[in-house]
Amino acid sequence: MQMTMRWFGTGHDSVKLEQIRQVPGLTGVITTLYNTQPGEVWTREAIAAIKAEVEASGLVIAGIESVNIHDAIKTGAPEREKYIDNYITTLTRLGEAGIKLVCYNFMPVFDWTRTDLARKRSDGSTAMAYNQKIVDTIDPNDMSSAIQSNSNGYVMAGWEPERLAHLKELFAMYQDVDEEKLFENLCYFLKRIMPTCDKYGINMAIHPDDPAWSVFGLPRIINTKEKLLHLMRGVDNPHNGVTLCTGSLGTNPKNDIPDIIGSLKGRIHFAHVRNLRYNTPDDFEEAAHLSTDGSMDMYAIIKALYDIGFNGPIRPDHGRAIWGEVGMPGYGLYDRALGATYLNGLWEAVEKSSRK
Ligand code: CS2
Ligand code: MN
User: Fold this and answer.
1) Is the Cβ atom of 157 under 6 angstroms away from ligand 1?
2) Staple partner for 261: which of 55, 62, 304, 351, CB 3.0–4.6 Å?
3) Ligand that comes closest to the CA of residue 154
């Protein structure tokens, strides 16, 4: 495995490449062109510029998170052909630049969803949290403006104000899209891009739904073992793979993460490993990475990844805000650096004890 950290790019991130470089064992970043909108073609110049910037700091680009998918592709609208062609052009240019991992999601309208970006924990840190009762009473418009106004001035990934300004139209686009249709549209998209992935050796890694169930009545199809395996079979090409995100799949306590990992051998191209704590059946909050701070067994997760021979990039995921740091919620330096160090320690222990 390759330990990495997400980095949103100069001007979009409170964390600097020089800082990431000093986290022990960290060799790569997961980045994106933060200014591009879903559907836009990435220019060769912009790809070359971010690559040069990352490499000048002594790190490499280990993958892209995300090349976002235009809603026309998700809904199967006639304009999808144009947007799939654009996606193929972007993939071609990434492939030519030697970038071989692309994380994306297929969640309608919203990316990840939280009701609180800074819930106070007993140790004085803050963490992102989710309460289903609040979601059940809130208007999606209020949700979107609350996220934008509570994010310390940063634009949250997946919550682009330009796109969410048209929330009503977005919801209308999905009116006739049920889970089955969404799944068909996903397979259609993947089948169209697979020849390009085959040509350049690009691994596509779908990010699970977060939380792992439908919100605001919108369909969601990537949130259980069965659904993940259904997609792997639907487009049975090794380049059609998964981002194993423990914090997303794990929002549903019924998802047995080590078992899911074991079932996806060869198809996990990227791992987001973080912990969370279930408070009540309706409420969870993000915890420190350490097993005892949350509800997940991080040792079992790392062991399962090791046992399937996982060798892709891995990253700590959302961290708490600690030590007075003000950054993009979930994406400060300190707690993620602690997370990376802890995950590296678990990996080393599993690796050495398995060799004996
Ligand atoms: C990320 C997602 O911050 C997060 O929760 O894991 O936003 C992820 O980047 C996207 O869903 C992938 O497209
Ligand atoms: Mn994730």
Assistant:
1) yes
2) 304
3) 1
